Amino acid sequence: MNITEKILARASGKDKVKPGEIIEAAVDLALIHEKAGPGFFKNFEKLETEIWNKEKVVVVGDHAVPPSNIYSANCILETRNFVRKHGLKNYYLGKGICHQIMSEEGYVKPGLTIVGADSHTVTQGAFGAFATAVGSTEMAWIFAKGNLWFRIPEALKFNLEGPLQDMVFGKDLILKIFGMIGIDGATYKTMEFEGSAIEELSIDSRMCLCNMVVDAGAKNGIISPDEKTLDYLKNKTDSPGEVEKSDPDTNYAKVFNLDVSQLEPQIACPHSMDNVKNARDVKDVKIDQAFIGTCTGGRMEDLRAAANFLKNNKVHPDVMLVVTPASNKIYKQAMDEGIITTLIDAGAMITNSNCGACGGGGMGVLGENEVCVSTGPRNSQGRMGHTSANIYLASAATTAASAIKGKITDPREID
Amino acid sequence: MEEKIKGRIWKFGGNINTDVITPGKYENLPLDEMSQYCLEPVDANFAKNIQENDILVAGENFGCGSAREIAPMALKHLKVGAIIAKSYARTFFRNAIAIGLPVLISKDAVSLCSPGDVLEIDLKQSKIKNLSTETNISIDPIDDDIFQILLKGGIFSAIK
């Protein structure tokens, strides 16, 4: 069995599972945020049932905090009332993006089955957990019963061999893969990552890699835990979890053996995550906004990469650079390292930790025909604002380099 | 929900994502207002002209993107009768069934349907007929468990 099959077998009390099999899995952690589904919290009350296990539920207010309109305010109000009524302790409002909270606050552990009412729940696969998304009605089912049916997914294996070039991050790897397999290239499947390039990646980059698998249609992305994973979790969790590795004789639907040692900084062009090019081949594209943030690209590695360029450079006068740290802990760490001061002095706007401009709800909405380069996960048409706006996706290094030059720029061109 | 659905066809391409179905710039509106902008980036008049039981026919990977249930909810709110696509994103497919919106899989529907044609879907028999062209369209059989969920209007009533 592969690592995903081993986790789901354990979660469903079976010795062995195989692709296509339907199982009922016990859920170890259930995650929901304030905008997961209109009426979710009120609807759950209509069931007149108790939450199956209050310790295993994590509730986060992150999408529109603080709210900029009455609807968003009401979403937070409903969330808070629900948390109070049920006495839920695992509640975070305005502390950061839910997928960052899950790892930073020690919820994720290797081997857990994690279900969230947000597509980017898959981020936690970076720690060797099975993590996937459902909608809010199925989340109500989990809240009541603590289990859910799953189909065991076929698996795609990506062996990525480095060493990686300078200025190449997890974002560049996943964009390269999107360019190869397309945005439906992994539909219903698991994407498993291994190889020297993965070992080399920071935890932040691994989270970015797993975060984006859903946008190739994958059910989950997963990396087997190593020393780096256990080091990261050591002071955050009370137990090390169940470290699983795929058996050597595992059958995969397809194996991709990729030499990524020559990979250059990548960029996804409008309006699809698989419209991927080398950043240096996208010439003369002037930008209006640069956005560094989100559950994909708002972590320490991203902020450090941006500050590294911006300590000796200014944001181009025609560009608005918006920086949204993925959590308050990241925000504070960035303050301690002087990064926030560097970014402000270079001309960036810093916002509080939330989902920000990514979903078009606020904190950097794009106007007519505006062009934005973003560290976020999606560049679908109209996602960040006006339907005519163009969104490019890249690493924080490429995004910061572009903010300095005022046009899409390969980060290796900045001194 | 009825076992048979009869409605006019609306055709869409492949990879219709959740940001197109329910654009983010309207995420701060309540469902009834937001649904008025459903599919706006690809057809600005969709919400205005959709009629009860109309049927969406689309290509591969319908509903890719976000797991938020607002996308199928908005279509259901507009009283869309069913969606027939070549394939679906996993979360959209699960969410649609969970709220009782029929999501059918057909490799042929795109080539055998034109906008405005009238289709009749027999969910129990897993059969579709294009009444305008008198053509039968093959679909993947609907699993009996899913059929029962659709009849009940979703899984919500089964949670206790």
Structure description:
The complex is a heterodimer of chains A (415) and B (160). Chain A has 415 residues and is of the alpha/beta class. Chain A has 14 helices and 18 strands. In chain A, helix 3 links the parallel strand 3 and strand 4. The N and C termini of chain A lie far apart (48 Å). By secondary structure, chain B is α/β, with parallel strands linked by helices. In chain B, strands 4-3-2-1-5-6-7 form a seven-stranded mixed sheet. In chain B, a hairpin with a 4-residue loop joins strand 5 and strand 6. Chains A and B meet through helix 5 of A and helix 4 and helix 5 of B.
CATH architecture of the largest domain in chain A: 2-Layer Sandwich
**Main structural class of chain A:** alpha/beta
Strand content of chain A: 15-25%
Strand arrangement, major sheet of chain B: 4-3-2-1-5-6-7
Overall radius of gyration of chain A: 20 Å
What Rg of chain B do the Cα atoms give? 15 Å
CATH class of chain B: Alpha Beta
| Overall tally of structural domains of chain B | 1
* Mean pLDDT level of chain B: 95
Order of helices and strands of chain B: EHHHEHEHEHEEEH
Total number of distinct structural domains of chain A: 2
Largest sheet of chain A: 5 strands, parallel
CATH class of the largest domain in chain A: Alpha Beta
Report the CATH topology name of the largest domain in chain A: Aconitase, domain 3
C-alpha termini separation of chain A: 48 Å
The CATH topology of chain B is: Aconitase, domain 4
